[in-house]
Design a protein that fits this description.
Elements lengths: L2 H5 L2 H10 L8 H4 L3 H22 L3 H29 L7 E15 L5 E8 L5 E6 L1 E3 L1 H4 L7 E7 L8 E4 L7 E6 L9 E8 L15
Parallel strand pairs: 3-6
Antiparallel strand pairs: 1-2, 1-5, 2-3, 4-7, 5-6, 7-8
C-alpha cells in the first residue's frame, strides 16, 4: 500500500476508480458513458431498498420524518443559490459598445436539446479576433440564412472581459425574426428564454425588458 492509499479513505479510492481518470486510464463507467446513469439509478435503487426495509420493519413514521428533514435541509441549502441567481439576473446588462462590427458565422448547430447554437467571429475595438454566441435566437424561418460564412452587423459589450460571451444583431437587421434570447456567461453560466416571434431585436427595442448600463 502506498502513502497515497493510506491517506485516502475507502470511499475516496472507490470514487476515483469508478469516476476519475483520463486517457487510457479512464474508468469503465466514464468510458462507456454510464457514470451519471449509474450514480442516479444506483442512488435511487439504494433509497428504494431502504424504504422497503423501513416499511417492513414498521418504521414508516420515522421514514416520513427523515424524508421531511432531508427535504427541509435541501431547500435551505438551495435557497441561497436561488437568491443569488435572482439577484444576478436583475438590473441592467453591462454597457454596450454601439459601434457596429462585422461578424461572420462560424458555427450553426443544434445543442442536442432542441436549442440553437450560433457562434460568430468578429474583431473588437483593438482589432483582436473574438468568438461569441449570438444573443438573438433566430426564428426557424430565418435560420437557413445564418450559414457558416454569412456576415452580420453586431454590437458587443464595452467591457473586453465580456467580448467572448454574446453579441447582439444591430438595428440593421430589424427584419430578421427572433423567437428567443440567450445571455449565457454574461451574468450567470446559462441564461436564456423565449420571446414572442417577430422581427426586430428583443434587446434594442424601446419596450425591451432589458436595459444596458450607460
Amino acid at each position: 500500500m502506498t502513502a497515497k492509499d493510506r491517506k485516502e479513505s475507502l470511499l475516496d479510492r472507490a470514487v476515483e476508480k469508478l469516476f476519475v481518470g483520463s486517457g487510457s486510464d479512464v474508468p469503465f463507467l466514464i468510458r462507456h458513458n454510464w457514470a451519471l446513469p449509474a450514480s442516479i439509478f444506483g442512488g435511487c435503487g439504494a433509497f428504494l431498498i431502504l424504504v422497503v426495509i423501513a416499511v417492513l420493519q414498521g418504521w414508516a413514521p420515522v421514514l416520513m420524518w427523515i424524508v421531511i428533514g432531508i427535504s427541509v435541509v435541501s431547500a435551505l441549502l438551495m435557497l441561497p443559490t436561488f437568491v443569488q441567481m435572482f439577484r444576478a439576473t436583475r438590473g441592467p446588462l453591462p454597457a454596450l459598445d454601439r459601434t457596429p462590427r462585422t461578424a461572420e458565422v462560424t458555427l450553426h448547430a443544434d445543442d442536442g436539446d432542441g436549442g440553437q447554437i450560433l457562434l460568430v467571429e468578429y474583431r473588437d475595438k483593438d482589432g483582436q479576433g473574438r468568438d461569441a454566441q449570438l444573443a438573438d435566437v433566430i426564428h426557424d424561418s430565418w435560420e437557413d440564412r445564418f450559414v457558416p460564412g454569412s456576415q452580420w452587423q453586431v454590437y458587443a459589450f464595452r467591457d473586453p472581459a465580456l467580448g467572448d460571451t454574446v453579441v447582439f444583431l444591430t438595428e440593421a437587421h430589424n427584419d430578421v425574426w427572433r423567437n428567443g434570447w440567450k445571455l449565457d456567461g454574461v451574468r450567470i453560466g446559462g441564461e436564456s428564454g423565449p420571446v414572442k416571434p417577430g422581427p426586430g431585436s428583443p434587446f434594442l427595442r424601446d419596450d425591451s425588458k432589458w436595459e444596458f448600463e450607460s
